[in-house]
Write the structure tokens for this entry.
Amino acid sequence: MYKTLLAIIPTILLLSSCITFPVLSHTEKASTLQSKGVGFSLGNYARNFFLAPRFGIYKDDFVGVDSGVSFYYSLPSSDFSSYSISPDIKISLFQTNQSKFGTGMSLSFLYLHSTQAQIQNLYYIVPTYMESSLTEWFTFILNFRFFIPIIKNTEEQNFLNQNFITINVGANFFNSVTLQGYLLATPLAQNIFPIPGIQLSYEVNF
């Protein structure tokens, strides 16, 4: 297992280092943190690093709520730099089932500076979280996020000023390591492409 991870991690970092694009979403499980639980996630996407602390507000056998904030920072290059921050709240249902469902709401601020444009956009996000615990140590995750611009950039008219969707896919191992990626789908077909990533997470319960 450890040899496999040691082989996968450098491969993902190598592949993603060639992509320069702002991170817009990351994989998150549908299940909620335990009551009075705190979770921390650290990960990498395409030259972008993110930190995502979360706090479990409430949970019972059917419904749970938690909230958090995600911060992304892109390693700057000669023609690209970016950061974004996204606070959110999540509601999860069917907690006792093998397959879980969640939804919620989020705001996302994106700053992007490139040789072509400078963009500062604010989005309202409508997410859908789904997961299936196939075994005790393996969970498959599939998420959708609908981005709706609240404040649009006025300098550049591109897909970031339009409604669009990101489709996240991930596999979580032992509730601590997630291999993940997402597709960015826009009205322009040529802007649909996969972005790989890896996430390490840790949860503390009081």
